[in-house]
Every structure is written in C-alpha cells, then in structure tokens.
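Batch job 17 of 40 flagged for manual review because the log was empty.
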Amino acid sequence: MDRFRRATISTISGATIAGEAIGGAYAEASVRPDGVTSNGSQTSQVLSLYFGLVPQALRAKAAAVLADDIRRRGTKLSTGFLGTLYLLDTWADTGWTDEVTGLLLQRAIPPGAICPRTVRA
C-alpha cells in the first residue's frame, strides 16, 4: 500500500510540474504584456484566465481587456457556448462583479445561450 501511495504522490507531483511548464509555455507564447491573450477574443481571454494560464501579474490586465471588449459591444458577449460557460465565474473572480450583475440582468437572450441540443455527424 505504501508503494502505491508513493507512486500516486509522485504522479500527482509530476502532473503539477508538467502543468506549470505547459502554463508557462502558453503564457510566454500567447499572453502579451498588455494582457491580450492569443487572438484577443472574448473566449481566448475567458479560457486563459479561467484555466490559470495568465501569469498573476497580468490577470487584472487580461480581465480588463475582456471587460473593454464586452463594453465595446454594448455589453454583449461573443464567447459562444465554449467561453460563456466560464465567463461569469472568471469575471467575478477577477473583481468585475458589477459587470457580471449587468450581464445577468439583461433581458435579451445573450449569444451562446441558444445551443443545439444534439450534434449530428
């Protein structure tokens, strides 16, 4: 049992180290000093923030890039269903709670809210 426990801890530690290396490589290649991630889309910003791929020092800038884009579009989302799932939590976690409230109180159906129930090949 002890051998299994040591192997499990080693695997978990190895996965953590690998995850940190992957996150670092992503940040180096895809996060600009102004907080724009990858192509700068709302989805890119949301997913990069949600999955911890933006360095701590740039998280506020990356969240502000997202906020600016949403405001520029008249408080509308362009995340589609992939990014919308993580948007509210990500935005709230980065301190944009008033904006989250504004999105939630909209009466119009936001983009990404209507998704196909089945996908046919």
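Reviewer: the log was empty due to a logging misconfiguration, but the result itself is present. Helices lie at 2-30, 42-50, 59-72, 80-93, 97-104. Unflagging and moving on to job 18.
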